[in-house]
Design a protein that fits this description.
alpha/beta; Rossmann fold; Zinc Finger, Delta Prime, domain 3; five-stranded parallel β-sheet; binds adenosine-5'-diphosphate; binds magnesium ion; binds zinc ion
Length: 501
């Protein structure tokens, strides 16, 4: 028999089966018992917290032949709804049926009485995805619903739903589940399936899931597939970091060496290969944690040389700052619509925080007396950067011969100082910067190619946004150039984490 994912096997079938969300369960059960249901419910909240599950339980409960307040799950009605055969429970995924036609069709069908039950339930998932005309058509139906219909609208983004719709629904806000609630359900599943697992593993999974039970079950599933029925903490770490230990290690080295561009490229490659951003971040975080353990002499893993080197190049406090920063970001990233952007910014911040070499070179440029002797090669490269800055307009038109769009974006950008071998482009608007960096870095590669052809030297391009924090030192040459170009008052050296409000 084909394997069924845990989150499907463990879909709650009755209200007592639901983990958490007691404020909702209680209200619905009461309404059922006292026959005070309304015609339209709106379920909002993060994904994987029970919206669809409760919608189905409710659809069963209103039609169950035996129950009052709970579906019996044994009568013909309960079973046909559970198996998805019932004509009277209609599930619509608004993400793929966004248009007016579907909603019109729904409006026409709503008039007919249910085939064999008291109610016909419409469960409209991701309802915020509907187009405006579709919302209007839905609204018409909600305004005068026939007595036998029950609407359950579910969404992760209630702010995108028109007020006119909101005002016609009874709204329930689903909460993220607590770690304790998740751990308890996982323990139940482990006992049921004779799975040997420590408490720490369960807590690890719960922490990763961050309130979403579906994510917890998926990760648990991955662990089972990887480790079999005995799961250790190391297995979980392996899964979260699997196939990427090397990627984490090299990404970390690049950050430490101040190689923003290389770091962003590695990140890009990893994420292009379909890796989940949140999962990647969690894995990277455990990698940093491992460095800290090595630093403290508390690691019981086999320590490789790179890890040792990374640990010795950082102070304990620096490591703690890094871990703090990444875990802060982790809290935002999971629910963000732009997780990737957040991660990229995190990389830049980390370089600012612990990217030693970059800082040293910049300081060295300012204070030659204290600086280590610079290599001839570096001088040459610095001279080329100066030349590029002078030739900039010319270069931009060369780019224009290959791509007008890239040219247009570059007109907005200003070349400023960088490390030897890199050219930093300062952008005025994040939109321009992102567009320039987008399309898998094609624009950047084009520019690098043109520069390499013209000057016979490989120069890397770094894009930054005006106002982004670029280095610790007040007398940072990058900031100075920016001030020169934009005027002191418009260049802000931001110190604050943009994610804490
Ligand atoms: N509150 C919950 N109680 C029990 N199981 C849950 C709960 N929330 C999510 N799950 C698990 O996750 C799966 C997906 O949940 P679902 O109800 O589809 O979430 P949503 O619709 O909020 O995204 C369920 O099949 C179940 O295994
Ligand atoms: Mg759902
Ligand atoms: Zn029943």
């Amino acid at each position: 028999m084909a394997y069924r994912a845990l989150y499907r096997t463990w879909r709650p079938q009755s209200f007592t089966d639901v983990v958490g969300q007691q404020h909702i369960v209680k209200t619905l059960k009461n309404a059922l018992q006292q026959e005070r249901l309304t015609h339209a419910y709106l379920f909002t909240g993060p994904r994987g917290t029970g919206k669809t599950s409760i919608a189905k339980i409710l659809a069963k409960a209103v039609n169950c032949q035996n129950g009052s307040g709970e579906p019996c799950n044994q009568c013909h009605t309960c079973i046909s709804i559970q198996e998805g055969h019932s004509m009277d429970v209609i599930e619509i995924d608004a993400a793929s049926n966004r248009g007016i036609d579907e909603m019109r069709e729904l409006r026409d069908k709503v008039r007919y009485a249910p085939a064999e039950n008291r109610y016909r339930a419409y469960i409209i998932d991701e309802v915020h995805m509907l187009t405006e005309p579709a919302f209007n058509a839905l609204l018409k139906t909600l305004e005068e619903p026939p007595g036998h219909t029950l609407f359950i609208l579910a969404t992760t983004e209630p702010q995108k739903i028109p007020v006119t719709i909101l005002s016609r629904c009874q709204r329930f806000d689903f909460h993220r589940l607590t770690n304790q609630e998740i751990v308890e359900r996982l323990r139940e599943i482990a006992t049921d399936g004779d799975i040997d697992v420590t408490e720490s593993v369960l807590h690890y999974i719960a922490k990763y899931a961050d309130g979403g039970l579906r994510d917890a079950l998926s990760l648990f599933d991955q662990c089972l597939a990887y480790a079999g029925k005995i799961i250790t903490e190391k297995d979980v770490l392996d899964i979260l970091g699997k196939s990427s230990k090397d990627q984490y290690s090299s990404l970390t080295s690049m950050v430490l060496e101040g190689k923003i561009v290389d770091a962003l490229i590695v990140l890009d490659k990893t994420l292009e290969s379909g890796k989940d951003v949140h999962q990647f971040l969690t894995g990277w975080l455990s990698y940093w944690r491992e460095i800290l353990l090595v630093k403290l002499g508390a690691s019981h893993l086999v320590i490789d040389d790179i890890l040792k080197e990374q640990a010795s190049s950082l102070s304990k406090d620096e490591l703690i700052s890094v871990i703090d920063l990444l875990s802060d970001i982790g809290k935002n990233i999971k629910w963000s619509t732009e997780p990737r952007l957040i991660l990229e910014i995190a990389v830049i911040k980390l370089v600012n925080l612990v990217g030693k070499e970059m800082l040293d070179v910049q300081v060295a440029e300012k204070k030659p007396s204290k600086a280590p002797v610079k290599k001839e090669e570096d001088k040459e490269k610095t001279a080329i950067i100066e030349q590029i800055k002078k030739d900039w307009k010319n270069i931009v038109s060369l780019v224009g011969k290959k791509s007008v769009k890239a040219q247009a974006l570059l007109v907005e950008a200003v070349p400023v100082d960088g490390r030897p071998g890199t050219l930093t482009l300062l952008f005025n608007h994040s939109f321009h910067k992102e567009s320039f960096e987008g399309s898998q870095g094609k624009n950047r590669l084009l520019l690098e190619q043109i520069i390499s052809q013209k000057y016979g030297e490989d120069i890397k391009i770094i894009c930054i946004l005006k106002g982004e924090k670029v280095a610790e030192a007040k007398e940072d040459p990058l900031v100075d150039s920016a001030k020169e170009l934009f005027g002191a008052e418009v260049v802000q050296v931001k110190d604050k984490n943009p994610f804490d409000k």
